[in-house]
Amino acid sequence: MSTTVGDSVPYGLVTVVGASGPLFEERLRLRGRGWIWLPPVLVITFLAIAPVIVPVALLAWFVNVARFWRTTVRIDADNVWVGRRSVRLVALDLTTLGRAQNTWPWRTFSNRWLGGNPIWTSDSVGVRGFDGGKPYWVSVGTNRRDELVTVLEGAVLAARERTPNPVLVSATSTAPPGWHPDPWDPVSRRRAASTVDAGGGAPRGADQSRRLRWWDGTQWTGWTHPPTSGPSTSGRAAS
Hints:
Layout: E1 2-3, E2 12-13, E3 24-27, H1 38-49, H2 54-68, E4 72-75, E5 79-82, E6 85-88, E7 92-98, E8 113-116, E9 123-131, E10 134-142, H3 145-162, E11 178-181, H4 186-190, E12 212-215, E13 220-225
Parallel strand pairs: 8-10
Antiparallel strand pairs: 1-2, 3-4, 4-5, 5-6, 7-9, 9-10, 11-12, 12-13
Helix pairs in contact: 1-2
């Protein structure tokens, strides 16, 4: 599998199975061209909010510079690391792989939120998973998205091959295929006590304000209801 280790090591071939070093590593610190974002941030703050908020925006910028100065996104043979936080590769659900998303402010204090998406990165990667019955989120900025996605997908599959019965995706693992409360939706998790039809239909008396996700019997899929975006497809709601 192809990957780059560090910021300056040439592109090379790395074998996932049995690898002792990082398969992927990228530092999120601000570099030269990233500073071009500072003037637009201050101008937008001045025009769209209020001139008095400009010093606050400037302070927030330098706080983030300090915050991400030593933050590294790293993938090894068993885990994904964002700074000091990590999650097992076998716990990640590749059907949720996409772009990084914003979250509730209080979630950033949880060790299960692996976040690092500074404005100066050119793209992002987001993926979710379950380990020990608890949800995990990986939401990071990157300047090498294609490479990160390729390495992540290969490392997850390799980790699953090495680990028999690696992880119960969630408490829904023994349930039949059907619509279940979305484990990544805070409202759905709080109201997950609703009964699910054995035939895979929507929960009886379900509150339509919460989101449901299709469980195929082995893992969560990308189908949600109500859909997060776009029209429904083939009788299911598109994610």
